Amino acid sequence: MQDIIEDYQSGFELEVNAPFSLNYLILIQNIYLNSKNKDIERPLFPYVDGSAWGLLEERFEETFAEVWRGAVDKNSKNYMYDHNGVLQLDKELYQKLFQDNESGSFGYLESVKFFLGWWNGFHGKIAIEAVFDQDKMEKVYKELAASVKIDKRLRIHLVYDKTVLAVRSERPWYAVVAIEEIFIHKKRPKLISELLKSCVNF
Description:
Elements: E1 13-17, H1 20-36, H2 60-77, H3 86-89, H4 91-94, H5 102-119, H6 125-130, H7 134-145, E2 153-159, E3 170-171, E4 174-178, H8 179-183, H9 188-198
Parallel strand pairs: 1-2, 2-4
Antiparallel strand pairs: 3-4
Helix pairs in contact: 1-2, 1-5
């Protein structure tokens, strides 16, 4: 999906994309959480057996938070960072979630194949970005533009599910947003409030 930019008289712009890197991490997070809550009534997507992938057995949650923070930092500082291939070019970062052995190396490669098999189809990246359609885009933009009087661009990275194992990712002029925050109308006031926090140089 090309960047969506709404440009009105204020000069404030909005750019929305769904990154490979962060959505891959959400997928790994959900596989881990499902493995820890096997009796959960509504499992997270994807519900798949990753026990042969060599995920970390100790300190997974702490390591996930560290990797997430690193990926968010790279995405927020470099708009060219995320692309189809980032999981190979920067695999040293993402492979930290797997054991440092043959099982972990195999598991990382399998997890990337599994992710890309979904993400590169119409049911993956394109479907996630479609949640933020022109109508929702314009509503969010107008609510933000009413308060933001700076001629800058806010970059929003969409992820398909909530981040459970890491803190909310706020950076200057950059935000990570779960699609339910856009899709579920009652969550919009909180979303707007959080996005406004990103529209400052803190």
